[in-house]
From TrEMBL:
Binding site for [4Fe-4S] cluster: C66, C70, C73
SMART domains in the cross-refs: BATS, Elp3
Cited function: Catalyzes the conversion of dethiobiotin (DTB) to biotin by the insertion of a sulfur atom into dethiobiotin via a radical-based mechanism.
Protein family membership: Belongs to the radical SAM superfamily. Biotin synthase family.
Protein name: Biotin synthase
EC nos: 2.8.1.6
Protein keywords: 2Fe-2S, 4Fe-4S, Biotin biosynthesis, Iron, Iron-sulfur, Metal-binding, S-adenosyl-L-methionine, Transferase
Record note on cofactor: Binds 1 [2Fe-2S] cluster. The cluster is coordinated with 3 cysteines and 1 arginine.
Cell cycle keyword on record: no
Amino acid sequence: MSSTFQQLADSVLVGTPATHDDALAVLRADEAELMSLVAAAGRLRRAHFGNTVKVNYLVNLKSGLCPENCNYCSQALGSDAPVLKYSWLSRDEALEQAGAGIEGGAGRVCLVASGRGPSSRDVDKVSDMVGAVKREYPDVEVCACLGFLSDGQAERLRGAGVDAYNHNINTAESNHGNIVQTHTYADRVDTVEKTKGAGLSPCSGLIAGLGETDEQLVEALFALRELDSDSIPVNFLMPFDGTPFENTWELTPARCVRILAVARFVCPDREIRIAGGREMHLRSLQSIALHVANSIFLGDYLTSEGQDAKADLEMIRDNGFVVLGSEEELAQRAARPDPVDPSIRRRGAGTDVLPNA
Ligand code: SF4
């Protein structure tokens, strides 16, 4: 079977897309084959991203008090999870928080606000924050995550300098009704399409461990391939007390690695980001997962604490990776010889032109 994973990697590397059956076989790989699977998926990761890790940093601009009822979310309507609840950060507070992540090594800042979607004034507010971040840190990418967008809002955010927009599909369409009732899967897809239409880089991913079947997990990943999501955050359910999913523990560290491997095989050249639940569910396999995924969040999540940022950066270094955009990575890039195309011979034998001698 392990040679089958290598064959699958060979075939994906030459441009043959993985099929549903391939994806299911990866998801159902035997525990004893885990490292062979990682080695095969790791070839795709290295082919597209080398030894770089993209580091992202979350700033929760507005926390809790959401009118939507996403059953997995600690900020949702009806959630009793004792998370921080506050209204919008000021521009200076947002800049300070973003700066902490950027100084820590993040190349992308994700500005997130709970809620169904932004009002026109909210878009102005976020645009102002984005302007401040971009003035201070012009090379940093900014991703916004503000919920459902109405017509014209994606274009306004793009005009303000936002690079990407996150809106996860979260789960398969066939499982969506089980996790939220206040909006539909189609609503989510509509916002992803709006962001693409405005020239924003679509960031859309999923949450594993929501009661989905293997087939539904694969369905969600194929939907993300279809949606052409540039970056795919793979979250592992954090079952907060006080939410309908409290006490839901469906994941093992090895399954989480297999889920990331499926994502890599199905979407080989996309940024696969290990997102919420990394520490809790991957535990001691976090490092191994980095050989499949190429992106993580640094430090804390929206409502829960992550491991120390220092430990994240150590893990990256210890595994032989470099942070994308770091001085180390730029030096590595500068040391690489410029690719030179072979120059086709048009003189000498077989031509009327004098040979090069
Ligand atoms: S819309 Fe976002 S913040 Fe609100 S409940 Fe759903 S996931 Fe949580």
